[in-house]
Structures are given as structure tokens and as C-alpha cells.
Design brief:
The protein is about 35% helix and about 20% strand. It is built from 12 helices and 19 strands. It starts with a helix and ends with a helix.
Length: about 400
């Protein structure tokens, strides 16, 4: 990391304040084991996978493998034996920790000791990216419009190899660097030479960042003579996000679009099946009529041909939307099968300052389990986002479908 001595000390100080002192791995393992025994949704599944034996194997590994990264792998591997979504260990070095904490801020604030949480409301240094880790490497899974990453020229599919000359981490590389430039080494294509880009992190609230990124994603795309509304819902966890969707539909109707692409790939779920009313064309139309007789539609329904973009990152409540839209013929699904991650999860604060996310209840949709199954698209479009250089094959196919191409 090419930093002079003073910024280096400042960053180390920021990191020390960010991460609480870590109890021994054994104590955290005991916490995880106890919480799972008491709260995991299926006692028979605990028995089936041999949970107690898995815990003891993890304990042996803790005795052999040292360091925070090893401890994280051990806990993640342990929870993976449960073969259930909404069940994972999130250390504070994982960007998902901060988003999950923000989405459950009210619950965690009332249920966790203060010394196990960062100061609320949650804030962190960020650059406006939805990060995806694949085989240990960090990739740009989405760029939030107008954010630091967007301004710096980062694109979908970029792999970030280094920050200021050191191995990259979406949390530690930016911690304490708000308002200060960070030099990134970016691999845009598999074979191309690395790019040097500079990004300036900002302090952000993850909940608000996800909401605003969803709102800012709305646009009208001109494609083959058609005007198509587009919205990417990065999360759908509260009525705040549903209002984003409603506002986007109203704006699209006012713009007179010919179609609508509703992108629910990646990000977080949380949607209620009641949100499917967005796609109901038969509801009455509402419009305002001013004193001058000017009419303005205030229509919150998608009444034009639409596509739901889905992939393996479409999870939880978003999958119930995909299921309902397909079953009722409300919208075509384009992309890849959804995650099959449909249970009810709850976060628990651990003594090392991390979170345990745990499936605490089964979910069924029309009596069916989507967990481990997912929802298949109507039009399958495989897409490896890595090294995509900003291109999006699934979005292009959706636009073609709405424009009349088969």
C-alpha cells in the first residue's frame, strides 16, 4: 500500500475502532452451536446432518488453523453443513455484514448488547458497489448510479485485484478512507492488461444506499424503436423499497413507455407477495386533472409488456414474486433459475462482533417449498458476469423480447 506514514497510522487506528476485540474461536463456536440448537428451524435436519459431530470437527480445526480468515472459513463451513439458506456467518470484513445489519437495524438495536454492534445507525466507508466474491476474488456485481465507483469508471464484472498496492477487501480497503483517493488495480477482461482507476470512498448508510441505488436505477431505455422502463430493486425488504417500485412505475407510465424491465437479480430479498399487485392491469386507472384541464396519470400499475430479470442471486422474498408472476402469467421471467433460498431468517449478534444469520422457520408458497428448488425462467439466458466489461446479456435479451424479437 503506497501510503505515507501518517495515513497508514490513521487507517490502522480506524480499523482498530471498527473491529471489536475477538474472543477465542472456541467461545464463538460455542455461541453458534447453542444458537443453532435452540433456534434452527428443523431439529430433524440437525440430527440428519450430524450437527454435534460437525461442531466437534470445527473445534478440532480451530486448534490447528489460526488467524481470522481461517476462523471465518471454519464457521462458514460448519454452517454450510446445514444445507439451508439464510444460514451463514458474517464477519465485519464482509460487506454483507453491514448491509444485513442495516436491514435489521431496529431488531438488532433492541435485541443485542451495544458492545456487539457498531454504532447505530450503521455507517461505513463505501464506493457504491454490490460486491460478489467468487473463488476468493472480489468482483463488481453491480454499480450504483452516481456513486463513487460509477464516477471512477468501474463496470459490472470488474475484478478488483489490489487497493493501494495491497490485496483488496471491500471493507478493509476503504475503512477510514472517506474523502481520500484509493488507487485500484482492476482486471476488466480475463486476458487484458490491468487498469489503474482511482476511487474516493464516502461515508454511507447501507440501508439508505440500497434504497437510493434502487431509486436511481430507474430510467427509460430506447431500444429498437421502443421506450422501455427499467428498475433494479437491490433490496425489497421494507415498505420504503416498495415505494421506490411504485414511484418508478408511476414515472414510467407518465413517460408513456412501451414495456417495463423489472430487475430483481442479486441484492437482498424481503418482498411481500402482495407486491405482485404492481403487475395487475385490471385495476382502475387514477389520474389527476388540474384547473387548466391538464391530465396527469398517477397509475401505479404496470400495464405494458414486462419482464422480470432473475438469476441465482434472486433470493428470498424476490423468489415469491418471481413464482407468483410466472404462475399467474403477469410477467415473463428472463435469466437463470433463482437461488432457491426461501426460508425465514433472523440475525444473531455474536461475541466477536460478527453476525450469525439463521433460518428459524420454513416458508411455503401455495403449500410448496421453494427452498433448494427456486423458480425457473421462461427464457433462459446463461450469463457469467465476471469480466463482462459492463455488458449485460440478460438485460439485452429482455429488451429484445419486449421489442418484439424472439
Amino acid at each position: 500500500m503506497r501510503l505515507d506514514e501518517v495515513p497508514a497510522r490513521a487507517m490502522l487506528g480506524a480499523m482498530a475502532a471498527l473491529f471489536a476485540a475477538v474472543p477465542s474461536g472456541g467461545r464463538v463456536l460455542d455461541e453458534i452451536a447453542g444458537i443453532v440448537e435452540k433456534n434452527f428451524y428443523s431439529a430433524p435436519l440437525l440430527e440428519e446432518v450430524g450437527w454435534n459431530a460437525a461442531v466437534e470437527r470445527a473445534r478440532l480445526r480451530l486448534g490447528r488453523e489460526t488467524g481470522d480468515a481461517a476462523q471465518t472459513r471454519i464457521f462458514q463451513d460448519l454452517l454450510a453443513t446445514l444445507r439451508t439458506s439464510h444460514t451463514a456467518y458474517y464477519p465485519r470484513t464482509d460487506p454483507a455484514y453491514w448491509q444485513l445489519t442495516a436491514l435489521f437495524e431496529s431488531h438488532l438495536g433492541s435485541s443485542c448488547p451495544k458492545d456487539r454492534l457498531p454504532p447505530l445507525p450503521v455507517r461505513r466507508a463505501d464506493v457504491g458497489v454490490f460486491w460478489r466474491q467468487v473463488e476468493g476474488a472480489w468482483f463488481v456485481g453491480g454499480v450504483f448510479g452516481g456513486g463513487p465507483a460509477d464516477k471512477a469508471g468501474l463496470k459490472l464484472g470488474d475484478r478488483i485485484a489490489a487497493a493501494d498496492g495491497h490485496p483488496f477487501s471491500p471493507v478493509t480497503s476503504f475503512a477510514g478512507r472517506e474523502g481520500k483517493a484509493v488507487a485500484l488495480e482492476v482486471q476488466r477482461t480475463r486476458e487484458g492488461a490491468p487498469l489503474a482507476l482511482t476511487v474516493t470512498p464516502r461515508s454511507s448508510r447501507p440501508f439508505e444506499e440500497l434504497r437510493q441505488a434502487s431509486a436511481d436505477s430507474w430510467r427509460v431505455i430506447e431500444h429498437k424503436g421502443r421506450r422501455i422502463g427499467y428498475l433494479h430493486m437491490w433490496a425489497w425488504a421494507t415498505i420504503d423499497f416498495q415505494q421506490v417500485a411504485l414511484d418508478a412505475v408511476v414515472k414510467s407510465n407518465q413517460a408513456g413507455v412501451d414495456g417495463f424491465v423489472f430487475d430483481i437479480r442479486d441484492g437482498w430479498g424481503g418482498a411481500s407477495v402482495g407486491y405482485l399487485t404492481l403487475f395487475s392491469r385490471d385495476l382502475p386507472r387514477l389520474e389527476s386533472v388540474g384547473r387548466d384541464g391538464k391530465k396527469e396519470p398517477f397509475d401505479q400499475q404496470i400495464r405494458v409488456p414486462s419482464v422480470l430479470l432473475v438469476n441465482g442471486g434472486t433470493r428470498s422474498g424476490k423468489e415469491t414474486i418471481a413464482y407468483g408472476a410466472k404462475k399467474l402469467g403477469l410477467s415473463r421471467l428472463v435469466g437463470e433459475r433463482t437461488a432457491g433460498a426461501v426460508v425465514f431468517g433472523r440475525p444473531f449478534c455474536l461475541g466477536d462482533g460478527s453476525l450469525l444469520y439463521l433460518a428459524v422457520a420454513e416458508a411455503r408458497v401455495d403449500g410448496q417449498r421453494l427452498e433448494g428448488v427456486g423458480v425457473a425462467p421462461d427464457v433462459e439466458v446463461p450469463f457469467d458476469f465476471r469480466y463482462a466489461a459492463g455488458k449485460d446479456a440478460q438485460l439485452e435479451r429482455a429488451l429484445d423480447l419486449i421489442s418484439g424479437d424472439r
